[in-house]
Amino acid sequence: MRTLLYLSILLLFLKCSDSPDIKYEPFVYFKLYDKRNNVIKLKIFLGKSGRDSMRTLSNEIFAYPGLESIEAQNNHLNDVPGGIFELKRLKILILDSNSINSRNSLEKVYSIHSLEELSLNYNYLDSLWPSLSNLSNLHKLSLSGNRLHFEASISGLISLEELNLSHNHIVSDYSGLCNMKKLKRLNLSYNFFYQTPQCIPGLTMLEYLDISHNPITDISGLSAFSALDKLNTIDVSATKISKEQLDSLQLMLPKTKIINNAE
User: Fold this and answer.
1) 0.90 cut: is pTM over it?
2) Where is 208: in which H helix or E strand?
3) H or E stretch including 8?
């Protein structure tokens, strides 16, 4: 494992507003170096909130070709640099709590074939067009708190181990899960499912499943859930699943913890 030597903190002033009164905005860049003095991790923090905050990542990131991780959550980003795919070693990209909603921005992200973790929680995404299938190395994907309805575009992510689709608007049976045989953690909470997705019993590597806060009335294919012998925890809180079905599920999976808290 690469030895990390030190962390430097640099306060930068970047132009990010067309306002004649406020032309520059302070950001803090935390840079993590390896033993060869290469920057491999960049964390970007907004120094001042407000409408004149950072809208896109600075092209300065291309000065660090060995960059493996970018964390730029809690800014006002609505775009990413077009050449971000040039960061051939980038494995982790976290852009939570920004203002990303354009197809153009997503197309740029989809070109980063080295990505292993992508987090776009709490943006303004209502679609993931085009397909995410280019991200064949992706192991962790988090899309919580967006406006997604149905996303067949993630069905090709056969290497995924963690998927978070909570707090979206997904209604229908989610067949896009069927090919994700390596999934270990799946969060579908706070959507609009009326029954559990039929693919779930086929996800035999699952260790954690959260289907809480959905209007689910039925566990689809209940008997097939016996195949989930690695399942440690399932959260069914605030659903409408009957006690009889939950009792049957517990009998099939005696080692599984079933969480069923009131709202």
Assistant:
1) no
2) strand 208-210
3) strand 4-15
Task: Go through 74-85 and write b for each residue having 16 or more CB atoms within 10 A of its CB, e for each that does not.
Answer: bbbbbbbbeebb
Q: Rounded to an integer, what distance in angstroms lies between the CA atom of residue 20 and that of residue 163?
A: 43
pLDDT tens profile 72-87: 888 888 888 778 888 9
Distance, CA of 82 to CA of 252 (rounded, Å): 51
Confidence of residue 172 (pLDDT cuts 50, 70, 90): confident
Measured CA distances, 114 to 86, 109, 154, 162, 250 (Å): 10, 11, 17, 17, 40
Which fold does the domain 152-263 belong to in CATH? 3.80.10
205-233: pLDDT as tens digits: 999 999 999 999 999 889 999 999 999 99
Beta-sheet strands, E only, within 16-161:
24-34, 39-46, 69-71, 92-94, 117-119, 140-142
Instruction: Please say whether the dihedral angle defined by the alpha carbons of residues 138, 117, 142 and 225, taken in this order, is positive or negative.
Output: positive
